[in-house]
Amino acid sequence: MSIDYVSGEYLDEANRRMVRFFGICLGILVFAYALLSFRLFLERGAFGAADLLPMSARALLGVAALVVLLNPGWLARRLDREVELMGKLFEDGFANAGTRERIRLILLVTMVSLLLELVMIRWLASVFPVFSFFKNFTLLACFLGLGAGYAVAEKQPCAPALVLPMLALFVAVITLLRYDLGAGNGLFTALPMHEQATVGVPTEGPSWIELLQQGGPVYMLLAMSFVLCACICYPVGQLCGKLLHSADALKAYGLNLVGSIVGVLVLCAMSLFWLPPVVWFTAVGGILLFFVLSRDTRLPLGVASFCLLLTVLSWPVQPEIQRIYSPYQLLERMAKSDGLMNLLSGGAYYQKVFNLSESNRGHEPEEDRYVRAYYEFPFNFKKKPERVAIVGAGSGNDVAAALRMGASHVDAIEIDPAIADLGKHYHPEHPYDDPRVTLRINDARNFFRTAQQQYDLIIYGVLDSHTALSHASNLRVDSYVYTREGITEAFKLLKPDGVMSVAFALPNESLGFKLSHILQDIPGAGKPLAVRVRYDASTTTAFITQKGGNIAMPETGGLAAIGFTDVSAHFAHPYPAASVPTDDWPFFYMIERTYPVSYMISLGMVLVLSYMFVRKTIGLRGTVERGYLPFFFLGAGFMLVETKAITELGLHLGGTWLVIAATIILVLVMAFLANLLVRGKVFQQTGLAYFGLLVSLLVGYFYARNHGLVVLGSPLASLALSCVLLTLPLFFSGIVFSSLIGRSDVNISTALAYNLMGALFGGLMEYNSMYFGFAFLYLLAIGFYLLAWMLSWNTAAVWTWRRLGLLGEGSAP
């Protein structure tokens, strides 16, 4: 074994310690829920007899949570024997399982482990918006739990029967926090990010103390959820590690990769049909229940937990709201006071539709007249345009305005198919049914890169993204739309006198300076006009520029009368060029280019919690064996290269969910192909693989920093070059990893434990991109892979150097 982590007595108690840790963290959330409910109950002032029963239930939950927090041993004494018995019963059944059954379980359990990870990431992001902006927190928690489970797979009893009860309790408590009385308090909706802005959350001038006060409850939610997710994944990691010893290490690792690929495909299928969380968790729980625990005598507990889980997820918490789980986010459709559609995303306002048809012109309420002026404002600069492109067409308001203003053809670009579908069904003007409209379900950046036609008018609606590009990066879906290169690509598609309008509800003035300076620096663009249009927010501003000439505010008193104000001079002031978003640093929502200190606070919290979790489960009484450290740094490097692959392919193919899923599958396929080559003894020279890995990373770094210098004949050729540069490092790192685990003295579950812990560390290091840019991840990865190479020098490099005649027999490097 690699590490003598702890004594056997400690390991026998590890499952019980983990359950106690889970109970304490869950108790903190339950107690917070009860206190919050009681506070809001008192603030209401008036209450009736019908309130007594729910308040009594909340009070009982709070008392129970307080007892657990003050006296953890009280619960432990009642659970310890049950937890110990779970482990013993499963171990007895596992000992009687045949080799073929164990190999089948490798595929199923590794599929479940990845599916569980992705499902929790998606679900938490749909329940609380903060998880959309800290999306890789859940990923890191899963890495921690799985890695700790792998580390002790052969050293303590495995208790997979714990997964469903813990998962059901976690989902129930998070649901109560979101949808019961706690939903309206706003404590869990603050975003504790000093450096980053989002629409609807003003960030002008808050102090650090104010942000910490506002973000305290959110940090608590993040911290407790981090530990709880790790606890849920821990038994799954245990089981995976135990099963991997049922076959040859290389074969078992190959099956692990196949199971992971299947897990991604299953989630893709569910996303394709917009299936709700009850289906996601049914897939996870059903496989665990009917394939892993089918012969366990604790099956009734699993069935009861499974039923509780499905009941909570299918309970109509807000029956007046229709929920649609698009591949990107949770959309909540409700009605405005006039009966028309209002859309929320994760509980926050997102979009609403208006009936501004010609038959209503002059008869609409005052508010709608203002809205009409906003949507028709770009057409003051281009009357009856022949061809219009609308970025972020959404539910159809901008498209309807283009049709009313005489556009001959409209390309409506919307990335989320569910939003477009809602617009088709519920917009009163039915703009998407008009034959002049072509709906493009695509990423705006990818659309403009591949478009062949030119436009009289290009309109950017307010795109503020409520969701991240992927679970592995901190980009938002629209990040590459608002880069210098992205807007320039769109501008090139304008006709000689074409007009571009970019509107944004600025949560911070710095975002306006970024847009203004991007537009004024575009070759061939006139001086941009900035107008406060105040739609949805007092800071909403439209930035207008024309190809080949300057543009001025329309000379009409009507616009000034309703509050449209020319603020061009304000946004013409100098602004740091380093803070203008580019394809390498696409952080449009960061107020300035600065090291993300508020994120570092969160990551420091992750490190502390990870230390506590490892101490509770693995223990820290032993020494780290040098022979397994290469796996740690391979995991860290692999995580960074995967993140760069996701962002790079998102740039070239668009940040659609299909591209992200395809990238993850491509990463796993490359690792599987490398595994096949090593198993077939086609390529086993680890030293040469390290050399190829480092060279490919250097080439990738040069290409990432110099996209403009490497110009190929067609976009397809450029895409092919990017795919080659992205997959080569993954292929070579796969060769190295498979070669190392194929050695007779390597324990595969311990190797994967180090690898996952390294991936967690790499995920933390990914935040450096928020200051240095994404190309910098290549340099970090090179550093990690060099460390892996040096630490595996005696076991891998010596043989290669000797074969090349660069090292004599008996010499040591």
What's the short story on this structure?
The protein has 813 residues and is of the alpha/beta class. Helix content is 58%, strand content 8%.
Q: Which percent range describes the beta-strand content?
A: 5-15%
The coarse overall form would be globular
Instruction: Give me the secondary-structure category.
Output: alpha/beta
Provide the gyration radius in Å: 28 Å
The number of helical segments is 29
Unreliable runs, pLDDT <50, ≥5 residues?
Answer: 1-11, 200-205, 468-472, 795-802, 806-813
Instruction: Report the major sheet.
Output: 8 strands, mixed
Share in helix: 55-70%
Strands ordered across the widest β-sheet: 7-6-5-8-9-11-10-12
Whole-number mean pLDDT: 84
Cα distance spanning the termini: 26 Å
Extended strand count: 12
Break the fold down into its secondary structure elements and pairings.
Layout: H1 8-12, H2 14-44, H3 52-70, H4 72-95, H5 99-127, H6 130-133, H7 135-151, H8 163-179, H9 208-243, H10 249-272, H11 277-292, H12 299-314, E1 322-325, E2 330-335, E3 341-345, E4 348-352, H13 366-376, E5 387-391, H14 397-404, E6 409-414, H15 417-426, E7 437-441, H16 444-450, E8 455-460, H17 484-491, E9 494-505, H18 509-520, E10 529-532, E11 540-546, H19 557-561, E12 565-566, H20 568-571, H21 597-617, H22 629-653, H23 657-679, H24 686-705, H25 715-741, H26 748-765, H27 769-772, H28 776-791, H29 793-803
Parallel strand pairs: 5-6, 5-8, 6-7, 8-9
Antiparallel strand pairs: 1-2, 2-3, 3-4, 9-11, 10-11, 10-12
